[in-house]
């Protein structure tokens, strides 16, 4: 249990609760859920520019990271096509992957196919079910993809001024504006309470909020004097109690709750908002293809990690379809902006390619 680990090392409840957010981030779990300690480890492993456990902003926004990867691939001779939806994986008569078919009917032939889509998308939508072992299909269907996350992107006309550390007269970013700010995290019991509400089908009345202001470090993301605020919030169930859906009214009601919470820490925040984009779990699934809205393509629980990710017997990036590999967050070691799954999958695919 994460709670036991934190109690062993720390005394301050606000500090323990702040650290606990990295153990439940993106997970429909409580700090008191068995196995939650691993998710904390997952978020602090690795390093950034030599600093162990550090995280950072990508200059130019997260899209700049995709562009950097694309440029590196193109420099090696890769051809990149965007806005070309894949309809299904092309299979040979002996059931081997030999390319993909686009929605417009175009066939793209290749000796190997690596899928960065989720296991559910890859094997339940892009491959005919009769071409896969029945037990494998059943295991993929049973992967836990519950997500508690609602992401809210906000445009504001001034920096939030927090009661704990008010802004200076010049309105310039202070050190805390350049970090992750955790709200409603004064105690682990608050996180557990928020989790409990979501398990009953209700959005948290006092949600966990991780607030970042990337434009405080990267001014080019917003017009002068304005800022973009990224709110990573939970817990919000994908399916609401009573059969209610996440319609526009429900989205805005939850966002208003989040903004009310921020207002209590930073009076004037609501008045500074000039635009907002609300992405509930169903929105994250529909727009980005995340199963259940899960940012990790599947829960990072102990039963879905290591040799069982995505399912037992297929944790080595290969699949029941020869020539088809899984290289996204649904493969080992899971989610996060680190590229480990892709790098590992590429090494396995290259090894097989040399033996063709």
UniProtKB/TrEMBL annotation:
<comment type="function">
    <text>Probable oxidoreductase that may play a role as regulator of mitochondrial function.</text>
</comment>
<keyword id="KW-0285">Flavoprotein</keyword>
<dbReference type="GO" id="GO:0016491">
    <property type="term" value="F:oxidoreductase activity"/>
</dbReference>
<dbReference type="Pfam" id="PF01593">
    <property type="entry name" value="Amino_oxidase"/>
</dbReference>
<protein>
    <recommendedName>
        <fullName>Pyridine nucleotide-disulfide oxidoreductase domain-containing protein 2</fullName>
    </recommendedName>
</protein>
<feature type="domain" description="Amine oxidase">
    <location>
        <begin position="37"/>
        <end position="164"/>
    </location>
</feature>
<dbReference type="InterPro" id="IPR036188">
    <property type="entry name" value="FAD/NAD-bd_sf"/>
</dbReference>
<dbReference type="InterPro" id="IPR002937">
    <property type="entry name" value="Amino_oxidase"/>
</dbReference>
<dbReference type="GO" id="GO:0005759">
    <property type="term" value="C:mitochondrial matrix"/>
</dbReference>
<comment type="similarity">
    <text>Belongs to the carotenoid/retinoid oxidoreductase family.</text>
</comment>
<comment type="subunit">
    <text>Interacts with COX5B; this interaction may contribute to localize PYROXD2 to the inner face of the inner mitochondrial membrane.</text>
</comment>
<keyword id="KW-0274">FAD</keyword>
